[in-house]
Write a structure and sequence with these properties.
The structure holds 2 protein chains of 2 kinds. Chain A is an alpha+beta fold. Chain A is built from 6 helices and 10 strands. Chain B folds into 2 domains: about 290 residues, Succinyl-CoA synthetase domains (Rossmann fold, 3-Layer(aba) Sandwich); about 160 residues, Succinyl-CoA synthetase domains (Rossmann fold). Classes of the chains: A alpha+beta, B alpha/beta. Chains A and B meet through strand 5, strand 6, strand 7, helix 5 and strand 8 of A and helix 7, helix 8 and helix 15 of B.
Chain lengths: ~220, ~475
């Protein structure tokens, strides 16, 4: 994992934050599941080999932190609409890459996993309920990195939302696997060390019997 | 921590020869108070003050240079600028330990910061320990050492106490001391860290972790600079002894502008809470909880589980207690125990056929000491009960002060934690103190008694988790 990280850091270079595609590639090295997807440079022709419908089209740029606010996300594209929407997005963001991904169908609530850097204690990993609603719900737990699977399990059990894992309304969310993912994110942060400023996986959802990170943002310390 | 450092801190905390720089005849001056306090310690004292000849019949040295050799500790009670000069002069006399009482250092501005830097440099350049500046001092009842210049209730702080309290702020420390003293508290040591120009929480964490007379450590901290190091050592300590931290002052996350969702959700207080939990430290949020937690953790053993039995002669408090026990989403969870048939039979036979035995056990206002005693025995013997909360309500005519001894004797014979709630009133503090001297942990509110049970269960969970982790690695 660490050698993958080195290669990845070299490829990014030190002078800019990674875009979503790059952040997801790094996460993959650490065993964090991501949707199948492909990045297209400005002006590239759409190629849907290996992708499924519906799919999502997203602007993919290290300069755009909040995509939704700039109409940078188009969801629910089917075989008919995908080509037109891809063109619309290329016109909307002529200088940026685009990311086309399988859109995940998921069970149960969205979660957020993140990393912050505390001045006295260093990096901490967070699990929170709610995905995009996370800031309203404010239902979170933190541990310093690296954090073990069992510590991550404690974090999940600390959340107000934790009864959702006890077969609530028939959901069969895998708590152990989510804990493992939290631990892996913490390992990634630990390995990146001081270079890492902030990280958001938001949302992460339970789709096809596994936790999948739908959006990942990594900001270097700067 | 090296054995050398341990030995040098022992010399600071248990000095044989003490110099008091700035000792004074004026009883209201810090130098006057500290000198008189130390007179009670029966150590050899050496007062230094160019303007005095004798204090309380003791010779006063006009100059530090005139002091004899082999002094273990200098307590410096004079103002900031003069104090720095005094430390320099004492270093010439090879004095290894210093307590600097004066404020006027880093906490007041650039001039003070400069003085503090000078102290820091002195501490780095020489083999010395400096406690402070702006330190409240040290107080070790067992060693009979007290350099604290403000009034505190030392009479009620038990001399066989086992709690080491390390506090950064003077005022909070004194409040906690007074608070503890009012109701009885087993103090092993009290250390005022002050501005931490040299000695800090990590030094004393190391020291009291290895100190055989300490079985519980409590810290009041405003900033933890070497956060990670503190946590790592605390985690080692907490396998043996509980570590309680009252952390005040919320700092803000990361210097970098927070743009992530996680950053907005964090606030460094949540990170601290998570970190303390992760490293097996029990966090509290005010001085009341600080004293309550360290008291119960120091006096009672681990709870075998989370099932609570409540024994009361006052129905209302039994019901209220049940509500507190069953409250969710607070610290470690508790459950009301399901009593065995045998326990219920014994209690009914010892009390009345109508006694409500479904926990809370309400033996009613017609109860006597003897009934209370036999019912308590039944709960101690019930394997389905992990913790017992006794509501010691002295209003019923059949309940007397003897109940204190009855409960105390049972505590000596069982490892099962027994916590007492005794009711409010002008005599409450005395009553709790009487319980304390008998070796019983008592609180003046149901909420605090139940919270104390949670501290014990939390402690047990921490130990369990750390030992499991150790076995896995």
């Amino acid at each position: 994992m660490k050698s993958d990280l080195q290669q990845w850091l070299t490829a990014i270079g030190g002078n800019r934050n990674p875009d979503e595609f790059e952040a997801k590639q790094l996460s993959k090295f650490y065993g964090i599941n991501i949707p199948r997807g492909r990045r297209f440079a400005p002006g590239d022709v759409l190629n849907l080999d290996g992708l499924q419908f519906p799919c999502a089209i997203k602007v993919c740029s290290s300069k755009i932190v909040h995509k939704t606010e700039v109409k940078g996300v188009m969801l629910n594209n089917d075989r008919q609409s995908v080509k037109d929407n891809f063109k619309i997005m290329q016109q909307r963001f002529p200088d940026e890459s685009l990311l086309v991904e399988n859109q995940q169908i998921f069970d149960g609530p969205e979660f957020i996993i993140g990393i912050v850097k505390d001045p006295a204690f260093g990096h901490a990993v967070m699990i929170g309920a709610g995905g995009v609603l996370a800031e309203i719900l404010n239902d979170t737990a933190f541990r310093l990195v690296p954090c073990s699977d069992s510590e991550a399990l404690d974090m999940i059990e600390e959340l107000n939302i934790s009864p959702v894992f006890d077969n609530f309304r028939g959901f069969t969310l895998d708590k152990q696997q989510l804990a493992q993912t939290i631990s892996r994110v913490s390992r990634l942060a630990h390995d990146m060390g001081d270079a890492l400023g902030q990280l958001d996986i938001n949302p992460i959802v339970f789709s096809g019997r596994q936790w999948v990170a739908l959006d990942i943002k990594i900001l270097f310390e700067g | 921590m090296t054995t050398d450092k341990i030995a040098s801190l022992k010399r600071l905390l248990d000095p044989k020869k003490i110099a008091i720089i700035g000792a004074s005849n004026a009883k209201e001056k810090v130098g006057g108070i500290v000198f008189r306090r130390l007179l009670a310690s029966r150590r050899r004292l050496f007062a230094v003050n160019p303007n005095e000849i004798a204090i309380e019949g003791h010779k006063v040295y006009s100059n530090i240079a005139l002091l004899p050799d082999k002094i273990d500790l200098a307590v410096i009670t004079i103002g900031a600028a003069a104090a720095v000069k005094a430390v320099k002069a004492c270093i010439q006399k090879k004095i290894p330990n210093y307590i600097l009482v004066a404020g006027g250092f880093g906490e007041v501005g650039s001039q003070g910061r400069e003085l503090e830097e000078k102290l820091k440099t002195l501490a780095q350049q020489h083999k010395i320990n400096i406690l402070g500046p702006n330190s409240l001092g040290i107080f070790l009842p067992n060693e009979n050492i007290d350099t604290i210049f403000v009034e505190h209730g030392d009479q009620a702080l038990d001399r066989k106490g086992k709690v080491a309290c390390i506090v950064q702020s003077g005022s909070v420390g004194v409040e906690a001391l007074g608070y503890a003293a009012n109701t009885g508290y087993g103090m092993r040591a009290f250390v005022g860290l002050g501005n931490k120009c040299d000695l800090d929480e990590i030094d004393f964490l190391h020291y009291f972790a290895q100190d055989e007379k300490t079985n519980c450590l409590g810290f009041y901290l405003e900033n933890i600079e070497k956060g990670r190091q503190f946590l790592e050592i605390a985690k080692q300590t907490t396998k043996e002894k509980p570590v309680v931290v009252l952390k005040a002052g919320r700092t803000h996350t990361a210097a970098s502008a927070v743009t992530s969702h996680t950053g907005k959700l964090a606030g460094s207080d949540k990170v601290i809470s998570g970190a303390l939990k992760q490293f097996g430290i029990q966090r509290v949020y005010d001085d009341e909880a600080f004293c309550d937690a360290t008291k119960v953790l120091s006096m009672l053993g681990d709870a075998p589980g989370d099932r609570v039995a409540v024994l009361t002669a006052a129905g209302g408090y039994g019901v209220m207690c049940t509500d507190f026990v069953e409250k969710k989403k607070t610290r470690a969870g508790l459950r009301m125990a399901k009593l065995s048939r045998q326990a219920k039979t014994i209690i009914k036979e010892a009390t009345f056929p109508f006694t409500a035995c479904d926990n809370p056990v309400d033996i009613t206002a017609s109860a006597t000491d003897d009934m209370f005693s036999q019912s308590l025995d039944a709960l101690i013997q019930d394997d389905g009960v992990d913790i017992i909360i006794c509501i010691a309500f002295f209003a019923p005519p059949g309940i007397t002060e003897n109940l204190i001894d009855i409960i105390a004797k049972k505590i000596q014979k069982t490892p099962k934690p027994i916590i007492v709630f005794t009711k409010y009133g002008p005599f409450t503090d005395t009553c709790i103190k009487d319980f304390f001297y008998a070796g019983v942990v008592a609180y003046p509110s149901i909420r605090r008694a139940v919270r104390a049970a949670r501290f014990l269960v939390e402690r047990k969970q921490i130990k369990h988790r750390l030992l499991r982790e150790e076995a896995q690695s």
